[in-house]
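To: structure subgroup
Subject: Chain for Friday's discussion

All,

I'm putting the inputs and outputs inline so they're searchable in the archive.
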Amino acid sequence: MDSLWQSEEKWLPLAIDATNIGQNFTVLSLHVLYQGCGIPVACKIVKGTEKGSWKPHWLHIFHYVKDVVPDYWQVIVLADRGLYADWLFEAICSLNWHPFLRINHQGNYQVRCDPKWRHLDTVHLELYPSFLPCLLSFLFFQV
């Protein structure tokens, strides 16, 4: 039987998610993205009202998955805007993976070759679609 995954493909798209099940518990999950589907491969269930950070749970999940992904593979990690945190971005980068984390309009951006920082809510990509590649970097702050 032939594999659906091409053997020459050396990249792995992952998605992370936090799903609240009422106030009972929260499922922190990591999925392999394949042909339009998210295949769950690791998760942690925490009490919905539990105080504290999810950071140790995510770090444990990442290191569990890191151990089974070859180092020479390119890994991208996608997340919805509710999961953005500086430490999360840095943790993903520390694994030599590539974070694609959706953000809110809570930060600033800088256009290449322009020293001025502008607030993210001033970006109107629908009016200027060619503007996106010109963004150099982001500076985030807590709201």
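Points worth raising on Friday:
Strands lie at 11-21, 25-34, 37-47, 74-79, 98-101, 107-111, 117-119, 135-140.
Residues 135-143 have pLDDT under 50 and may be disordered.

D.
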